[in-house]
Design goal:
Layout (H helix, E strand, L loop, with lengths): L9 H20 L4 H18 L4 H13 L2 H20 L1 H11 L6 H16 L2 H18 L4 H18 L4 H10 L3 H28 L8 H14 L8 H11 L4 H18 L5 H10 L8 H7 L8 H19 L2 H10 L5 H19 L2 H19 L3 H12 L10 H10 L11 H16 L6 E2 L2 E5 L2 E7 L6 E6 H6 L1
Antiparallel strand pairs: 1-2, 3-4
Helix pairs in contact: 1-2, 1-17, 2-16, 3-16, 4-9, 4-13, 4-14, 4-16, 5-6, 5-11, 6-7, 6-8, 6-10, 7-8, 7-11, 7-15, 7-21, 8-10, 9-10, 9-19, 9-20, 10-20, 10-22, 12-13, 16-19, 17-19, 18-19, 18-20, 18-22, 19-20
Amino acid sequence: MKETKKNPSLFLSILILAVIASVLTAGISAGVATIPLLVVNIFLILLISMAAGYRYADLEKSMMAGVKRAIDCVMILVFVGILIGAWIRCGTVPMIIYYGLGVITPRMLVPLTFIMCSLLSLCIGTSLGTAGTMGVACVSIGISMGIPVPLTAGAAISGSILGDKLSPLSDSTILAASASDINIYHHVRSMSYTTIPSVLISLFIFYVLGGKYAGAALDQSVLQTVRDTLSGMFQFHIVLLVPMILIVILCLKKVPAILAILISGFAGLFLAVVVQGASLTEVLAIVYSGVKVDTGVAIVDTMLSKGGISSMMATICTAVLALAMGGILSEAGYLNVIVDRITRVIKSDTSAILTTLACGIITVMLVTNFYVSVVLMGTMFKEIYDKRGIHRSVLSRTIEEANTIILPLVPWNTSCIYYMSLFGFTSLSFAPYVVFAYVNIGISILCALAGIFIFKALPDNDAESDWRIWKKKDVTEGPEEMESVDVETVMEM
């Protein structure tokens, strides 16, 4: 019998990955849910591995090791469900939507769609939920003004994936940090260096694209219906911003993520009672079941019927199964063989990041599942980044840029299918207008080529980074010379 730690053949490793990709691609194309497909993949991997000589006891131990890595991720997701429900019931999210819709003009619809979807997605941590609520509202307003649906939808999708990528409440953010085995705050901080410039550039592009519709007539009916419904359900007050302000401050203070989420969530539940007049029984029910509303206005019902622990169960199951499968692939050595081949072409920090980006895009297109792709990439590349002394937040950042923002552009991915159905598309006519995806990938590539934002792990504590901008002098001759520029110094210039 083989020891689990021994590396298998390259053929067997490729066969295993091919089986995973085939099952997921065929299943998703046939409309099968992801969770049963992951169960099928785990079963097939176990059978193939035992046929190749691996002991089941070793494989099971590897699978459980992968699941153990998911515990932090699972607990954060549980409490995020509570947070989302609390923010909606106390009126924080409805207030953002209400005042956001109040400043829309034909000239500013497209850039404001991007901004408002970004803010909402940052608040609730879901791109699909944001597009299905704020995105639908903005597209409906755009239709009334004669603005092409692909343009407004592209702005909505761009904002939705921006918040989904950057929000510490997002399952993609949580899983990318978990798969890379780093602190979620380090992950978010690292992403901000490439995301903020991408946001500014995207906003300018959307402003230019929307400029040609400045003279369009605004039909207030759809907008006013949503605003009237929200104002009739909630009391809006500046104090409702407290839950958002709390979580920002706690994140900056590096309070543990679970504690920060719980404090903000219970602040929201408290405000739901004090400001909105919710009963204690209702508030406690929100913890598990989330918010359920029936106003008769479909857009508003979709916007507000969210949250609760129960809403996160499918995401939690998917994450756990994906990490269990990743544990087998890693511990059995299937990924080690492939990584060894990839390592041969990596001669610099730049090539490490560009290879991660390329492999991530290819992987998510092959396996058509974000969770599986993120786990595979994190498992495959951690050792490479550690050997080069690159802080793992750079890995987790690159994984997100190769996965989260690509999903709407992969026709056979469920995210893309969802957006096409949501906005009534029969083709990828919205794809050219998902500006943020292209800009963010471009910024990531440029930063890698320039050798900036490649943060190094501290020699005495590789879990920490010195957060400096590192520039390579020479990557081909002799030891690498590095010069650093303190980020705070740059920001003061």
